[in-house]
Design a protein that fits this description.
- The protein is of the alpha+beta class.
- It contains two helices and two strands.
- 1% of the residues are buried.
- 24% of the residues lie in helices and 14% in strands.
- Strand 1 and strand 2 form a beta hairpin.
- It has two domains: 58 residues, Pemi-like Protein 1, Chain: D (Ribbon), CATH 2.10.260; 40 residues, no CATH class.
- It starts with 28 loop residues before the first helix and ends with a helix.
- Strands 1-2 form a two-stranded antiparallel sheet.
Length: 98
């Protein structure tokens, strides 16, 4: 779990972002500060029902394991398992000369 530098309280005014015609938005300063986001850092956007949650993407893909769900599946993706399966498939293809 990512610890926020400053928590935005429910009683605080909720920051608003406007979507451009290209589908872009600027993350409001209050949110960037709360998540300790710096320029050029990446975020992951997780859709949960009718809302989206912005999470800082730090470390590597394995650090976010368990946070992404596939529609229709109960369990989140196990990135460690996926990584091992990919390694085995790559090794099989290399051994087969593909």
């Amino acid at each position: 779990m990512i610890k926020c530098k400053k928590k935005i309280q429910k009683r605080d005014i909720m920051p608003i972002a406007t979507l451009t015609s290209k589908g872009q938005m600027t993350i409001p300063k209050e949110v960037r500060r709360a998540l300790n986001l710096k320029p050029s850092e990446k975020v992951i956007i997780v859709v949960e029902g009718d809302q989206a949650v912005i999470k800082p993407l730090r470390g590597n893909i394995l650090d976010i394991g368990g946070s992404i769900r596939i529609p229709g599946k109960e369990k989140p993706i196990d990135f460690h398992k996926v990584r091992e399966e990919v390694k085995k498939e790559v090794a099989r293809r290399v051994a087969a000369g593909k």
